[in-house]
Amino acid sequence: EAQVTQNPRYLITVTGKKLTVTCSQNMNHEYMSWYRQDPGLGLRQIYYSMNVEVTDKGDVPEGYKVSRKEKRNFPLILESPSPNQTSLYFCASSQAAFSTDTQYFGPGTRLTVL
Amino acid sequence: AQSVTQLGSHVSVSEGALVLLRCNYSSSVPPYLFWYVQYPNQGLQLLLKYTSAATLVKGINGFEAEFKKSETSFHLTKPSAHMSDAAEYFCAVSESDSWGKLQFGAGTQVVVTP
In the prediction, which pLDDT does B1 show? Predict the structure, then answer.
């Protein structure tokens, strides 16, 4: 089954404790992206990757890091989480970076930073 | 810079009634437009998209949307609501030079009453 998976689905942590949210897709997609969803704000892009070893900032990259060492994986790293990073996070992928491409979303990771 | 406005953060419709969700965009050039649906505790799923072909776009689950350039709108409709349509709906836009980035509206929560 074609899908985007994220782990963990739920995470409660404390301020300053490094964490990684994994994202994996099995569709051989070139383009992957991370969004955060906050009430009343919709989804905002954090980082994106056009292909292996090619990443760039989205609209809200502060406090986040990403890497793309393999085509299928695109982990999101919070080196020193803070309470304002409490949010619902989605990973998405598409065949390429064309603006008409359909993006496929993972199930989401709900992060709480205390 | 493009932006997306969804009128109404919450919409309540009766089962069998028309569903109308409004989306307006601001962009210097006609963008590509998408509607996504998010069911509880799930990721986003594409309902339909406009990519500069036909202005009336049909999607899954009986939904359709019409691109109106003169009104900068892309409203989503369904003639007869089902209980299963209860979800949050997001309008999103992308531009040809946006490297796949989607700009989302704030979302509209749809409640369907018997």
Answer: 62
